[in-house]
Amino acid sequence: MKNFKYDIPTKVHFGKGKISVLGKEVSALGKSVLFVYGGSSIKKNGIYDQVMKQLDSMNVIELSGVEPNPKIESARKGAQLCRENNIDVVLAVGGGSVIDCSKLIAAAASYEGDAWDLVLDTSKIGNVLPIVSVLTLSATGSEMDGFAVISNMETNDKLGMGSYKLKPTVSILDPEYTYTVSAYQTAAGTADIMSHILESYFHKEDGAYIQDRFAESLLKTCIKYGIMAIEEPENYEARANLMWASSLAINGLISYGTDEGWTVHPMEHELSAYYDITHGVGLALLTPHWMEYVLSEDTVDKFVEYGVNVWNIDSSLEKYSIAKEAIEKTADYFRKMGIPMTLHEVGIGEENLEIMAENASKRGAKYGYVSLSKEDVLKIYKSAL
Ligand code: NZQ
Ligand code: ZN
User: Fold this and answer.
1) In 10 A of CB 336, how many CB atoms?
2) Is a pLDDT exceeding 90 seen at residue 54?
3) Is residue 4 a part of any domain in this protein?
4) 324: which of 7, 58, 284, 361 lies 20 to 30 Å off by Cα?
5) ipTM greater than 0.95, yes or no?
């Protein structure tokens, strides 16, 4: 196990009715709030009214319309609003897209240049306004991590940025707020959580036993509750377990001490950059192909551990049979949740595969569990067509 520093600063309020602490938490941070949200979902399900009630004694400026795969233009607009209104706190109410956009807004508010500079170079981040999040979709873990992923459609870039300063100060996690998430977004969100866990779980560090067992229990949680939440959207137990899994998958708990580079995420980010597809769907359809591609004598033991401990495959079988069955079960689970499992089904053809493969390799896949060159990524993309 590698050395690490455990530091997870976000205060989490978890459970039914926890919106009741929002007013107190936000007012402790300042008087003027930028309330950031996405499309119409929070107005339809009543979360908007509950939030406004909590903010009634504060000066509230709204930024609505943050898109899935948030665009740089929204962050620029938000930063401008912060400067014009002397904003003290950025309040994100939504899924990963809204929270990510709010993180960049909070950082760009005090930056004199263009917000995109901070995505390209996080060392330029200076003061960051405090970020409070109210999560409405279990998926990215943005509610408890220091990452933000921002798209620039002019340049076909979807880039991740990471900084300790971007971690939310407070996050409110009420599983009931996810009851209205569609079956499609619930499936995509569950696949995203599973991918975050897998990206950490497939590492080469010896002796990270505790991280691996945590990861397996989180994977089992997603497998148990993903389909349940799709079939019974108002099942509290399912929504609660998925919500907490979303945070724990990426807040450092399972990656401290292993620190492996991620591979499938950089490959997926290129798909969303060029085609604006749903992040979790792209991950689900690539993951089994990535697994097949990296399965070798060097990696087979890790796949056996995954197959036996997560999918309960008979450990007495031959090791490659276990590995292949584990990969099949992974793909089957995504399929059962209703996720389209080919690139064609989500509208992606061969036209941009070369450039996407080149970007994916240099932006991360080269540094992952198994280093992938442009040619490797291209083969994986082609196998997913
Ligand atoms: O915009 P509204 O109307 O709110 O609708 C949203 C959106 O259309 C809807 N939704 C959210 N909560 C809902 C709801 N609909 C009904 N009821 C609710 N309670 O769901 C749609 C998708 O929302 P979005 O925020 O885009 O989804 P997600 O949370 O999956 O976020 C995806 C973004 O996060 C990035 C992804 O790349 C993508 O841009 N990621 C961020 C990470 C991070 N910060 O650590 C890591 C991830 O790997 C990921 O890359
Ligand atoms: Zn993800």
Assistant:
1) 12
2) yes
3) no
4) 361
5) yes
